[in-house]
């Protein structure tokens, strides 16, 4: 008899159906997302996860270059490589953050995982229809196109590692520190609309990184700070209590710093 579970994209047999908490997290994976997902699992039980394949680096760079130009993108790519290498250099610092905050960077057992190529596909629409969640939380996936978003009937939230609207986009924690705005080092949960981190804010959390933190460790620091915020926002959605809050501040979208911006900021401000 055919399984009623949605297929995975690699042909593996799907996991056996388990009682669902009505929560679906959509992510391309990575330690920050699993930290949040595992916190939700601890609060609500096993979570349904739609796991998107990471976007090919070449396609990402070409798309970014169409908007910013190849010169800027080359500089941003340099920083991306530097950060990847730097995480090895700061592995001990990351390990301490993980241990001190009791973070879990790999999926806990029990989560039901459905693999797809991209959120902007019929496979994603079908997976959401099958899982029938009461709330969806995006945590590090592609921007969902408006026509896909319109097919979803439940609230769609996004975990953003930055304070909106001042630090929309990428590296929100780094840009707050680099801008001399340490009071806005933090993260946001907001409702999703057609823009980039422009939807109504539900909750925000702020904190101060350690003097030993830097762009290589900010992601772990923010994920640790944000776990309870995400749990609270999801609970509010399940209970029909989502209440957007006013955020009267200038709005700006940020990207990766170019490698020369990163080095100059480090030398001038001590923000790395």
């Amino acid at each position: 008899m055919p399984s009623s579970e949605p297929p995975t994209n690699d042909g593996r047999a799907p996991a056996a159906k388990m009682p669902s908490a009505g929560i679906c997290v959509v992510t391309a994976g990575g330690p920050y997302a699993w930290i949040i997902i595992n916190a939700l699992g601890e609060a609500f039980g096993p979570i349904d996860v739609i796991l998107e394949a990471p976007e090919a680096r070449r396609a990402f760079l070409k798309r970014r270059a169409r908007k910013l130009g190849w010169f800027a993108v080359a500089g941003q790519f340099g920083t991306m490589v530097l950060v990847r290498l730097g995480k090895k250099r700061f592995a001990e610092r990351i390990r301490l953050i993980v241990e001190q905050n009791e973070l879990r960077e790999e999926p806990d057992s029990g989560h039901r995982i459905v693999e797809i190529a991209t959120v902007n596909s019929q496979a994603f629409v079908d997976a959401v229809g099958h899982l029938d969640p009461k709330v969806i939380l995006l945590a590090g996936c592609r921007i969902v196109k408006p026509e896909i978003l319109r097919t979803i009937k439940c609230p769609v939230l996004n975990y953003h590692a930055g304070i909106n609207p001042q630090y929309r986009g990428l590296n929100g924690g780094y840009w707050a520190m680099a801008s001399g705005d340490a009071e806005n080092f933090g993260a946001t949960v907001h409702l999703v609309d057609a823009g980039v981190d422009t939807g109504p804010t539900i909750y925000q959390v702020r904190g101060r990184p350690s003097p030993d933190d830097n762009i290589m460790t900010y992601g772990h620091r923010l994920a640790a700070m944000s776990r309870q915020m995400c749990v609270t926002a999801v609970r509010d959605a399940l209970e029909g209590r989502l209440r957007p809050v006013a955020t009267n501040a200038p709005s700006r979208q940020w990207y990766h710093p170019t490698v020369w911006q990163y080095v100059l900021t480090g030398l001038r401000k001590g923000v790395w």
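The chain is about 40% helix and 15% strand. The two ends are 57 Å apart (CA to CA).
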